[in-house]
Every structure is written in structure tokens, then in C-alpha cells.
Design a protein that fits this description.
eight-stranded mixed beta sheet; TIM Barrel
């Protein structure tokens, strides 16, 4: 089974194709994965690998680890564009997510005031008031919507709860009143005898209608960049992504393509 995990709470900095020089924060275990989705393309592998034994990091350990790293980077004169909540699963499941976000913003303001704070979230926890509040504080609230069609949504993202449906996610995303960036992975392929493809005209039309409700400030359209746990998935090429992006731009959206 593929497992590509971050083995520390603070990791990087790394060069992100979407965000620039990014220092990562992993609010999940360093030796396992915890996520409310089980996406076919997740570079961290499937949830079946288990949560490991380390447990989630405490608020205090996150704060101390980030402070130490930012001091080291500042002393070395290193560049930093963004501090990004990512890692081994869904960061918003951390029980003290709001408090951690506030800590990170204070440290950012002290050491790298020009850097942005970003959260990569799968959008499943937005019904929790403290999660929504935290996401309204960050510079880049990067939310996921890979399909607005239920069958594709469930086949591709495989939510842990059957109650998570695209209509509910879209409704939750509307609360941000446009202060979000929607990240959409475009792919096609086969898994357990089923063909999955969110690049069709019907899928793109449904996404555009969903975006119209959400009114994001930007859409990040991207394709597979690393090995995936599901073996028979196809990377969508740059030209095709641009064709899809053109349709979205024609509907009035700012679209960033990352092939």
C-alpha cells in the first residue's frame, strides 16, 4: 500500500506549484493518516493504512515547533511565501484548530509579516462553527470541490460519512461569501471496475453552476502530479486543462491552471 507521509509536524519549506515557497504544518499524526475523505488520488495513500501511534500534535507543540523553525529561517535569511496547513489528512479535524490558526497568525505577523497563511481543506468540516471561524481568519481558505455530481463525488473522494454530499458542501461554502479559493482535481480512470471521469461536459457544467453559487475569488484547476494509491488513474494534460479553464473563465471566474 502506498504511504507517502510527512513525518514531522512542521515540514519544509517546499516549493509548491500553486503557492510558492511553503512551510507546511501537519496537524495529523506523523506516522499515519486521518481524513474524512479517502480520495483515489491522495499522495498520502488510503486511510486503510491507519492513524498510526503518535497521535495528533498538541496546540503547544505546534506553536513551539513553528516558532523555532521561523526563527531559524529568519536568521538564515530564507524566503517564505506561505505557511500552509496540509499534511497527513484533513487539518480541520484537529480539536483545537481555531486556536492553532490564531497562534500561527501571531507567529507569522512576528517573523514573516508578508507571508500568507493558507489552509488546504476538503470542505467536510465547514458545519463546525470553530472551523468556519478559523477559515475566515486565514489569507487563503483553499477548499475542495472535485465534482458537483453525487455519483462522481462519492466515487472519487469517498467521504467517510454517506451524509457528505456535494449539495451540502456547496451550501457550506456559500457562507464564506466568496472569500475562498476552490481547488478542483481533474482526472479520469478506473477503480474497482468503475470508470470515473470529472472532465466531461456534464461534469464541467455542474462545477460551473456550483461555482456560481459559491462565488470563489479564484479556482485552482489541477491534475495528478505524483503517484496515486489507485493505480489506473489518468493525468489530464495541460492543453485539456486549459480548454476546461477557458469554459470556466467564460463564465466569469478567475482560473489558475496547474498541470
Amino acid at each position: 500500500m502506498q504511504t507517502v507521509l510527512f513525518h514531522s509536524t512542521i515540514f519544509g519549506p517546499i516549493k509548491s506549484r500553486r503557492l510558492g515557497v511553503s512551510l507546511g504544518i501537519n496537524l495529523l499524526p506523523n506516522d499515519g493518516k486521518i481524513c474524512s475523505f479517502d480520495c483515489l488520488y491522495c499522495e498520502a495513500g488510503f486511510n486503510a493504512q491507519g492513524p498510526g501511534k503518535d497521535g495528533i500534535p498538541s496546540r503547544d507543540s505546534v506553536k513551539k515547533g513553528l516558532k523555532r523553525k521561523l526563527e531559524q529561517m529568519q536568521a538564515a535569511g530564507e524566503k517564505l511565501d506561505v505557511i500552509t496547513f496540509s499534511g497527513n489528512g484533513e487539518p480541520t479535524v484537529h480539536p483545537h484548530f481555531l486556536e492553532v490558526v490564531r497562534d500561527v497568525i501571531r507567529l507569522r505577523d512576528t517573523y514573516y509579516p508578508e507571508a500568507k497563511v493558507s489552509v488546504l481543506t476538503n470542505s467536510t468540516m465547514l458545519g463546525r462553527p470553530h472551523v468556519a471561524e478559523a477559515l475566515k481568519l486565514v489569507d487563503n481558505n483553499i477548499v475542495k470541490l472535485d465534482s458537483a455530481i453525487a455519483a462522481t463525488f462519492h466515487a472519487l473522494n469517498r467521504p467517510a460519512s454517506p451524509n457528505v454530499i456535494p449539495e451540502g458542501v456547496i451550501a457550506d461554502l456559500k457562507q464564506f461569501e466568496g472569500q475562498c479559493i476552490v481547488q478542483t482535481m481533474m482526472l479520469r480512470g478506473d477503480y474497482e471496475g468503475r470508470h470515473i471521469d470529472n472532465t466531461t461536459d456534464a461534469e464541467v457544467d455542474a462545477l460551473i453552476e456550483a461555482y456560481k453559487e459559491i462565488k470563489p475569488r479564484e479556482i485552482m484547476l489541477y491534475s495528478i502530479d505524483r503517484k496515486t494509491p489507485a493505480q489506473d488513474l489518468e493525468k489530464v494534460g495541460a492543453e485539456e486543462l486549459e480548454t476546461i479553464a477557458t469554459r470556466m473563465r467564460a463564465a466569469g471566474f478567475k482560473v489558475q491552471v496547474n498541470a
